[in-house]
Design a protein that fits this description.
- The protein is α+β, with helices and mostly antiparallel strands.
- Among the domains are: 336-483, Isoleucyl-tRNA Synthetase, Domain 1; 561-662, Nucleic acid-binding proteins (OB fold (Dihydrolipoamide Acetyltransferase, E2P), Beta Barrel).
- A hairpin with a 2-residue loop joins strand 10 and strand 11.
- Helix 15 runs antiparallel to helix 16.
- The N and C termini lie far apart (70 Å).
- The chain binds ligand ME8.
């Protein structure tokens, strides 16, 4: 019987479209799933969506649609997204599915049977962003301490869970299972939090109707976190008449979550499970955050990354590689297109791509498009590969992806050094193409590349398959045995040619890519349009719901939101093109301030710099500075957008003093 491994991602809220954070957790989970399969495990991988609660209810109201309509629209985006990223999830659970409702009711029945639920009334500060209550003492400047979201006073009748009774059992569990929470720093945080004392938890809401009805009390819905956490067992049929999946897979081996929701998974969830008399998951890993400009990404800051353009241009593998290589797993890291492109060129185009094409080109030339017919079992690359594969496996087992990939790249560097040292071209010249030494030397290089392909396969499955095909490996096995030296077929035809990673001219990329300007429509203020999913649902995922046809209603903002944007009239004093860009223009603008303002705008296709000088324009003057193709822009010009996307600058109807405000 193969060993089993059940892993889960968080189920994502449907108040907004998926972004790089959701992609990250899911790509990491997929990499782990693939790496475990490589190790011979029978894997089950679950992801899904969290569709109830106040946050979704409000987002739907803002768009003038029902919460279910909003959920259906957003959920429809997931199957094509996960397909595009080569995600191999076995199941996709939605909390609006009947199987989940059954699981939640079964869970509540168990907590009740244990005597851990009672009715009371609650008054407290509620953060709809986190879907959690916070005691007044924990608020920071009147906002929620976790994310700085606004809080509101809520007072209502509620069902409570006796969380306080689980303080000591939880602490005992942490002590007996130090591997339960990872990384270790987060373990300490959770222990400290629980040691400070646990209050009973309100687990129903009376003032909300968007949720799972409380069993036997239509006046309440189930608190969204009790609802959501139960997905990990409801997806296995817990609460239904068929427990086969549950019996086979529970307890989970790994709940992968962001550090923002570690507490819910490491405190509330195990307490619920203890109360229900169910086994606890073996590990909860709280990974770090992707930051943008060193700040947390958030809808309200408008700095959320959706890497559509990078995905369209490069495909999934380079992005998957970047996400795993750039972030030390567990810590925070900064996302930027520049960082991605730098790694793409250095590690993928130069490193893996060049080494592979260099070695393959020689095999094509000397051996008539075939692999060598000699194998070599005693050489420097074999030694290195043994050391590297061992380090790779060890690092992958503890989720140190960065270290694992570093090890692989050491083997690539060793191949390069070996080629330089052995100079196969001299061997071919001196001894001819049939030279056994030449065959052995190139065998060592190609065999090392085969090992590299197997090792990168959990991270870059598509590229690994292409490289293996190029190496003449027809039916690649991606199990542990494939990591033993000697798997390269002898005298076999090499597969298709073509660079794995064509090098990118970074400057040209930014000159042409849409990412170059900050005056594109803010994708964060997005209303979620009804849209037919671009691709069919993954075979195992439930079909995406039928999209709705009601037109979206633009999100409404209060006057106080508008007042935060400072609009000012100014006169352009200087204008010139930004070198190497056909779109960007650098302007110096008199905003009535002591110094001229430098502003870069993507208007160069419609306007010549000369015609801009002397014109009055309207500028967002308190926009966070941004750097566009190396030039800092300290503001943004306002322009209307024609149907073809061309900008038309806005100006006051008649001349006004520079610095005049606009409202
Ligand atoms: O919290 N960097 O859903 P959610 C890295 N529904 N990962 C990020 C990230 C970032 N900047 N932003 C988000 C919820 N994530 C609940 C979960 S589970 C029973 C219920 C990832 O849509 C990370 O995994 O807000 C984080 O925990 C998750 O998305 C939050 O997704």
């Amino acid at each position: 019987m193969p060993k089993t491994f059940y892993l889960t991602t968080p189920i994502y809220y449907v108040n907004d479209l998926p972004h790089i954070g959701h992609i990250y957790t899911t790509v990491v989970a997929d990499t782990i799933a693939r790496a475990k399969r490589l190790r011979g495990f029978d894997v089950r991988f679950l992801t899904g969506t969290d569709e109830h609660g106040q946050k979704i209810d409000r987002a739907a109201k803002q768009q003038g649609i029902t919460p279910k309509e909003l959920a259906d629209r957003v959920v429809g985006r997931y199957p094509p997204l996960w397909k595009a990223f080569d995600i191999t999830n076995d199941d996709f659970i939605r909390t609006t599915e009947p199987r989940h409702h059954a699981g939640v009711h079964a869970m509540i029945a168990r907590l009740e049977a244990r005597g851990d639920i009672y009715k009371g009334s609650y008054g407290g500060w509620y953060c709809a962003g986190c879907e959690a209550f916070f005691p007044e003492t924990q608020l920071v400047e009147g906002a929620c301490p976790d994310q700085g979201h606004p809080v509101e006073w809520l007072e209502e009748e509620s069902y409570f869970f006796r969380l306080s009774a689980y303080q000591q059992p939880l602490l005992d569990h942490y002590r007996e299972h130090p591997e339960f929470i990872r990384p270790a720093t987060r373990y300490n945080e959770v222990v400290r939090f629980v040691e400070m004392g646990l209050k009973d938890l309100s687990i129903s809401r009376a003032s909300l109707s968007w949720g799972i009805p409380w069993p036997g009390d239509a006046g309440h819905v189930v608190y969204v976190w009790l609802d959501a956490l139960t997905n990990y067992v409801s997806a296995l049929g817990f609460g239904s008449s068929d427990q086969a999946l549950y019996d086979r897979w529970w307890p989970a081996d790994l709940h992968l979550v962001g550090k923002d929701i570690l507490r819910f998974h490491a405190v509330y969830w195990p307490a619920f499970l203890m109360s229900a008399g169910l086994p606890l998951p073996k590990q909860v890993f709280g990974h770090g955050w992707w930051l943008r400009d060193d700040r947390k990404m958030s809808k309200s800051l408008g700095n959320v990354v959706r890497p559509d353009e990078l995905l369209a241009r490069f495909g999934p593998d380079p992005l998957r590689y970047f996400l795993l290589r750039e972030m030390t797993f567990g810590q925070d890291a900064s996302f930027s297109d520049e960082g991605f492109l730098a790694r793409y060129n250095a590690d993928l185009a130069n490193g893996l791509g060049n080494t592979a094409s260099r070695v393959l080109a020689m095999a094509r030339r000397y051996f008539d498009g075939k692999t060598p017919h000699e194998r070599c079992t005693d050489n420097a690359l074999l030694e290195k590969s043994r050391e590297v594969t061992a380090r790779y496996l060890e690092s992958m087992d503890v989720y140190e992806f960065q270290r694992a990939l570093e090890a692989v790249w050491e083997l690539l560097a060793a191949v390069d050094g070996y080629v330089n040292e052995k100079a196969p071209w001299s061997l071919a010249k001196a001894e001819g193409n049939a030279s056994p030494s030449l065959h052995r030397v190139l065998h060592n290089c190609l065999e090392s590349l085969r090992l590299v392909a197997v090792m990168v396969s959990p991270v870059m499955p598509g590229v690994a398959a292409r490289l293996l095909a190029q190496l003449g490996v027809v039916a690649p096995s991606l199990d542990e045995g494939a990591l033993a030296w000697g798997g390269l077929p002898l005298d076999a035809p090499l597969g298709g040619e073509g660079a794995l990673f064509p090098r990118v001219d970074v400057e040209a990329y930014f000159a042409e890519a849409k990412v170059e300007t900050n005056d594109r429509p803010d994708t964060q203020k997005i209303t979620i349009p009804a849209e037919t999913p671009a691709a069919p649902a993954a075979a195992t995922a439930p079909a995406a719901p039928a999209p709705e046809s009601a037109p979206p209603v633009a999100e409404q903002v209060g006057i106080e939101d508008f007042a935060r944007v400072k609009l000012v009239v100014g006169t352009v004093k200087l204008a010139e093109r930004v070198p190497k860009s056909n779109k960007l223009v650098r302007m110096e603008v008199d905003l009535g301030e002591p110094q001229l303002r430098q502003i870069v705008a993507g208007i160069g296709k419609r306007y010549q710099p000369e015609e801009l000088v002397g014109r009055q324009i309207v500028v967002v003057s308190n926009l966070k500075p941004a750097t566009l193709m190396g030039v800092e822009s300290r503001g943004m010009v306002l322009a209307a957008t024609l149907p073809d996307g061309a900008p038309v600058l806005l100006a006051p109807g008649s001349e006004v003093p520079d610095g005049s405000g606009v409202k």
